[in-house]
Amino acid sequence: MARTALVTGGSRGIGAAISKALQDQGCTVAATYAGNDEAAAKFTEETGIKTYKWNVGSYEESQAGIAKVEADLGPIDIVVANAGITRDAPFHKMTPQQWQEVIDTNLTGVFNTVHPIWPGMRERKFGRVIVISSINGQKGQFAQANYAATKAGDLGIVKSLAQEGARAGITANAICPGYIATEMVMAVPEKVRESIINQIPTGRLGEPEEIARCVAFLASDDSGFINGSTISANGGQFFV
Ligand code: CAA
Asked: What pTM was estimated for this model as a whole?
């Protein structure tokens, strides 16, 4: 069945691969982005996927943006809360601003993205909520007290929504990517990145498409009995 999907942070990195995979699966996709107009325009030109600009950390902007997407494309059946940022610093150097920015985008952003869509999913008795968490929400990470807290929190949101949505035909699941070859990981100092790769039994970074294929499956009508789960896709770096 043709479904409508919203992917936050969907024009770059893992999000862009997710948007494309859902489109390949027959979905009509809307991708949001926060600031990079040039990358978004290029993405739309290449894929035909519409992009929308708003800050997922703002409830008002999210609500208005989602209303616009639904007016353009129809009710949203699949929501992928993917938008995320890092502001890495050892805890003794982490500023309140670095803490708050990451909380606003990665944690409150999930609430702001799913909450306006949720009532419609309940009414229509179908929904797929997929949250992109992280290996570092499972295991913690040096210099990521803020990021790890949000990514662990995302798992709590998913497990709660899984219970609340089940009777209404809605599933909520999380994916915990390991280190994937995106700009976010490439921003880590090269020496640190090399030592990270040494900790991955597969011996390489993951590809965005390897996460996108997990999302495509969880978003499909076939995955209805998978609810509240966490898929770890990390090359064997960490087992839960
Ligand atoms: N474990 C233990 N010690 C570590 C360490 C680690 N993983 N990383 C750094 N250190 C140590 C260093 O060896 C250094 O020790 P010395 O002072 O004794 O030499 C110290 O910590 C670094 O202290 P600095 O004051 O120099 O640190 P800094 O303020 O310059 O910050 C940093 C550097 C931000 C920690 C930088 O090293 C960094 O970015 N590290 C990577 C953090 C990381 O893995 N982030 C993940 C990003 S990818 C992502 O988030 C996607 C995803 O979901 C997987």
From this structure: 0.96
Q: Grade residue 189 by pLDDT with cuts at 50, 70 and 90.
A: very high
Q: How many CB atoms lie within 10 A of CB 184?
A: 16
Q: Whose CA is nearest to atom 10 of ligand 1?
A: 142
Q: Decide: 191 in ligand 1 pocket, CB within 6 A.
A: no
Number of compact structural domains in the chain: 1
Please indicate, yes or no, if residue 236 is contained in any of the structural domains.
no
The pLDDT of residue 166 is above 80: yes
Cβ of residue 152 lying under 6 Å from some atom of ligand 1: no
Residue 29, domain member (yes or no): yes
What is the reported pLDDT for 33? 97
Does the residue 239 lie in any domain? no
Q: Rounded to whole angstroms, how far apart are CA atoms 133 and 10?
A: 15
Residues taking part in catalysis: 147
Q: Taking a C-beta distance cutoff of 8 angstroms, is the pair 29, 69 a contact? A: no
